[in-house]
Amino acid sequence: MRLPFSRRREEDRDPHWDAFINRPPADPNNVIPHAFSQVHDGETNPVRTEVHSPNVLASHIKELGRFYGADLVGIVGVPSDQGFAIVSVLRADYDPRTAAGVGGQTPALKGLFATFTLAAYIRELGYRATRVFAEGNRAERLAVAAGLGNLNVEGRLVTPRVHRVRAVRARLSRARGVPRC
């Protein structure tokens, strides 16, 4: 198993590619993740959908997350707020925490889109859901708790189920009242 971001590629020597991946934009509004992260959550539907099977709902939420671009999706209880976290794991060739360019932020965009849509779906079902931006490696620890992989010595998620995982960009949707799976 390879360590995250350990591979050098031919395109890494191209100065235009390097700028696309690593050079921060002059205006943050030119990067979709910045603009997308400013969007506010919608209201919760006042008519709550009856859930007949928590396991079926959980599998639908996971399938929807994969449809929207997440490579792995897990659901884990968060005892501190009596809710649940939906953890999305995305493959990234470059670490979005250090690759500040438009191309380097692509996994962040995919993660924002997937979690925004999952939270919107849960709110439309009549349950509260909020996108959460986790600091440090909290997202990775939640991914481990959801059974999506293990942490390496650097605190990054490593998983054999998704080939070539280089980085984890996990976005969380906290959903109160969603049945536990």
Task: Give a topology summary.
Blueprint: H1 15-22, H2 32-37, H3 54-67, E1 72-78, E2 83-89, H4 106-124, E3 128-132, H5 138-145, E4 150-151, E5 157-158, E6 171-176
Antiparallel strand pairs: 1-2, 2-6, 3-6, 4-5
Number of domains: 1
Mean pLDDT: 77
Report the C-alpha radius of gyration, rounded.
17 Å
- The chain-level structural class is alpha+beta
The helix content, as a percent range, equals: 25-40%
Q: What is the tally of beta strands?
A: 6
Strand order of the largest sheet: 1-2-6-3
Which outline best applies?
globular
Largest sheet: 4 strands, antiparallel
Number of helices in the DSSP assignment: 5
Order of helices and strands: HHHEEHEHEEE
Terminal CA distance reads: 30 Å
Strand content: 15-25%
| Unreliable stretches | 1-7, 163-172, 176-181
Protein described:
It is a single chain. α3 (54-67) runs antiparallel to α4 (106-124). 30% of the residues lie in helices and 16% in strands. β1 and β2 (83-89) form a beta hairpin. The strands form two sheets. Strands 1-2-6-3 form a four-stranded antiparallel beta sheet, sandwiched between helices. Strands 4-5 form a two-stranded antiparallel sheet. The protein has helices at 15-22, 32-37, 54-67, 106-124, 138-145; strands at 72-78, 83-89, 128-132, 150-151, 157-158, 171-176. The radius of gyration is 17 Å and the shape is globular. It has one domain. The protein is α+β, with helices and mostly antiparallel strands. Residues 1-7, 163-172 and 176-181 have low confidence and may be disordered. The two termini are 30 Å apart.
